[in-house]
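Re-running the complex after MR caught last week's input typo. The corrected sequence lines follow. Everything else is unchanged.
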Amino acid sequence: MSLLQRTIKQIFPQDTEARDTAKERLDNLAIPHWALGDLMDLSLDLAGITRTITPQMKKKAIVTMAGDHGVVAENVSKYPSEVTPQMVYNFVSGGAGINALSRQAGAEIFVVDMGVAADLKELAEKGKILNKKVGLGTDNIAVGPAMSRTMATRAIESGIDIADELAQSYDVFGTGDMGIGNTTPSTAIAAVCTKQNVEALTGRGTGLDDAQLAHKVEVVKRAIEVNKPDVKDGVDILAKVGGFEIGGLAGLILGAAANRKPVVIDGFISTAAALIAYTIEPFVKDFLIFSHRSVEPGHKAMQEHLGCKKPLLDLNFRLGEGTGAAVAMNLVEGAVAILTEVATFEEAAVAVADK
Amino acid sequence: MSLLQRTIKQIFPQDTEARDTAKERLDNLAIPHWALGDLMDLSLDLAGITRTITPQMKKKAIVTMAGDHGVVAENVSKYPSEVTPQMVYNFVSGGAGINALSRQAGAEIFVVDMGVAADLKELAEKGKILNKKVGLGTDNIAVGPAMSRTMATRAIESGIDIADELAQSYDVFGTGDMGIGNTTPSTAIAAVCTKQNVEALTGRGTGLDDAQLAHKVEVVKRAIEVNKPDVKDGVDILAKVGGFEIGGLAGLILGAAANRKPVVIDGFISTAAALIAYTIEPFVKDFLIFSHRSVEPGHKAMQEHLGCKKPLLDLNFRLGEGTGAAVAMNLVEGAVAILTEVATFEEAAVAVADK
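Corrected-run output:
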């Protein structure tokens, strides 16, 4: 059995007993009922995911995966592909948005080369990044598949490997991405999985004008028409219209679920990866924590497809890298604090409400 | 000149030069333009407030003020007034929501007895709380003023004293409240200041049913009719339909502004205090950071009156205590990290966008 097949077999839904026990405690906290709203809902999820009402969320790992995209040849991004390796160097030197926000949240960053179109061996040899390179950027999805099915499986299994490794020492994972052009494959994935109109799902990415946006819509449509991804087959969707970092993140998400670790989903690209993971194994849904609502218009439909009505944050972020996930890590810790540190009416000797 | 008058004279708007310098740096960060959205807006505010583009937000103080309310005699709350001192004890023993969430955010809590209807001297003598008691609970606003004008000024000046003291060692303040019945005076303040209908502003507080809610609307209306607060006079509004902890928080906010410290505003009651402070000196607006949107329906109108279109968080909180402010402290730190730790395109040697 392959690593992917074995992983899928280890994914089960949330534990209802732990959820129920957590709910009983939260119902009796010395506060008006459920007065800490969304963070209490999150507490239940954390109990259900970890199978305990005293989860720990101290050790936090943000996994930021990088890859390049052949579809950049279609002029779908304002930035050239060279920016992808430049940003990897920026992550390594600690000057990127994700570095600043991870430090604030007390999270460690793991930068992974899933398929950057540049030689990053030196960084990997120095231990600055993880080398899981599947290829030097994907092929152009506007004219054919992004990658072979073998490569797609390899990308996913690389992500699973990382999850299995990190699960030994970390309590919670966050997803992050870097890849010039990667809103285009993510939009294609969104269109295939949610079955909504490409027009409604396509956004300005790093800052396209109206004409560039219209062109991007055409490119996404062409990618789907040319490749005809099988909506029921997550590996096929990834191979046809995906990206190496998207596949790696899908694997990380599957691996998180198999290891019963909550995985905080960042923005548009990470949610596309979650759609791939969900198509492969729907139970992963129970392990996803949606950090924020991106400015990208398609994000809402993708989150709703995954059962998320309202993510934790809505801060007009559109950066990726894991920045939304990093900020949300604070809320994950807050949810644990509510579950494990707030006293019940009885414990606090506080009078209960007059019914 | 009184302390209040002196404080008002020390409140100036945000520093436009520091804001402009911060904006120039943020415009050049190695990210798509303004891709960290609301946190970048917050970075500008922090620069304008502190007059520097390298602000520090390490030392965080949450000031949770407690007081009782004579209007509880009108059956406007599901909980008896005894819960106010019980919750003060809960704060001191570390088991309340605000304790858990402040620990997560790395903030210290200062609990202040502004007017609890119980003898809390022992806690004050042990240094567990600050004793600024103005009275043993306010009078019933449904039949007359909450307090005298002298008491209102004293409540406000107590808050200023605390701000002046904490400003020596803390970078940022958060507001918090505890007071059974205090959504009723806060709704009255909201109605007076925003001039909106009492019906639209009144909420269920700790959990009223429909009949109790209708009754609360009547009580708020009566409080305004009986007392006729002067809409232009913040001290008068506080004296007529306010509360001791609301006055203390208004003073804390004025004192924060005079000391050029950002003050993170919690929920419904804290925002009522901000309305009092704003009525006294409109420039305080420049120092307010709105942490979250409360479940209480009137909160939106109050925030909008203070110029806030969208607070940082929307987590369905309705607890008070400073819990929303505590969670938002993480975002304040994040905004500082973006301003001071993220590299520009030039610093990171990243190619700029193709225009």
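None of the earlier attempt is carried over here. Residues 112 and 344 of chain A are 44 Å apart (CA to CA). Residues 323-341 of chain A form the longest helix (19 residues).
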